[in-house]
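Worked example 4.2. Below are the chains of a multi-component assembly; read each line carefully before continuing.
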Amino acid sequence: MQPAYLRIADDLRRQIVDGRLAPGDRIPGRRELADQHGVSDKIAMKAVQVLVSEGYVESRSGAGTYVRQRPAVRRLARSWYREARGRASSPFRADMEAQGRAGTWRSKSQSDTAPPGIAERLAIDEGDPVMRTHYVFLADGEPVMLSTSWEPLELTRGTPVMLPEEGPYAGAGVVARMRAIGQEIGMASEIITARSITAAEAAELDEPLGSIVMVIQRTYATEERPVETADIVVPVDRYELAYMIPVE
Amino acid sequence: MQPAYLRIADDLRRQIVDGRLAPGDRIPGRRELADQHGVSDKIAMKAVQVLVSEGYVESRSGAGTYVRQRPAVRRLARSWYREARGRASSPFRADMEAQGRAGTWRSKSQSDTAPPGIAERLAIDEGDPVMRTHYVFLADGEPVMLSTSWEPLELTRGTPVMLPEEGPYAGAGVVARMRAIGQEIGMASEIITARSITAAEAAELDEPLGSIVMVIQRTYATEERPVETADIVVPVDRYELAYMIPVE
DNA sequence: TCGAATTTGTGCGTATGTATC
DNA sequence: GGATACATACGCACAAATTCG
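Applying the procedure described above to all four chains together yields the following structure tokens:
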């Protein structure tokens, strides 16, 4: 026998996926749901919270609970390095332009020492100096993606590209910046995982708590060594990732 | 001001990520937590449930709540087509062998008509006949991955490869099977999303409800047309996905 | 502008059922 | 069987946010 709150949640979920409850629609309040199903309002609320945690609905205190507007899911094509397309522009800006949107970003750089996981990805020692840069990417002004990148200071110290977003190569992308100091990037490795959003990320991305993000651990490497690595945080309700793989 | 149950959840979460509470450890019971933080046991329970839904802990009725054993996260290398490696073996089996594990699977095929999304991926019309095959992949006997594939019956009807897991090409993989009927696959496209696990998937994979899966929508195509598409369901606590991308 | 009504969010007490040890 | 601990469910109360007359 299924608990009452799960039965009610199933009922509502079915109405949403069927389309009987459309995005933006308000779902019945606690009192109403409780009456309909003959349970206490506490249980009705619990059912609603199941749907919140699954990302189907969004509650606004005082206003009600609404079926979530799924923003159109855009595709991030990650297979080919796309620097050339945008000409003196970053891969992100080129990607957004291809979708008819204005790509901009905010960033903040700070020198730091390499934590264990990052040191391993950059093939340096734990505690070695790195430049850490945090990005918030915006499409048409709204935040859509986060990224934190690490570069070994050993490579960039004293060069014009030490600060990624200042100087002559500001906004040009990692590949162009590294080329400027003689590092020819030939390969990108991307490790993909997914998890719940953190409170900090939810605030930066204006996403509800409980939504899911994919994390791309991208590492750029020359023939000799890794030269940059980044954690790219992508909300699943905004983007899907696309890879093209030649067979044979 | 943060609600009490979130403060308690934060406190416990910190202890887990710090390692003060190790995988397998039992966390304090409701009564104990409530006393420590000066709240009712109801609130202590709510805090614990936050951690359950985040996948940090697992409750066993009657026994207690325990920090989850994270199975070692394995890496699925998806960049190169790996048929040759395993010789007369499937890509999955070759992948598992590379990790020193025994790769097997169960499957069930059934002819069906193409639903809208699948029809689009296969570039056929909605309602066209397809062969649908559901796979449960096992590593050392335990289920680790699910897949549902669709192939246009127009291509395979009346050939020895119509049923993917019967006949001379059983277990040989899509690329080899399609080659046998003159379809030379040259490209794989993979679209990646992530979402909460469904109840059915949780049962098949022996994963707790609320855990997160990545879904790979893989489509194999020849120069002319798509010939197979599949939804591959991968639990994030078992696998991460790895792609290598040449730059420029 | 203000206040009343509505709705969600949080919290406590109590009770019963069920699984585990 | 008994003790313990989690799961479900009802009741009540109040706070905070929103809506609307």
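Take a moment to check your reading of the output against the notes. The first strand of chain A starts at residue 26 and ends at 27. Residues 5 and 46 of chain A are 6 Å apart (CA to CA).
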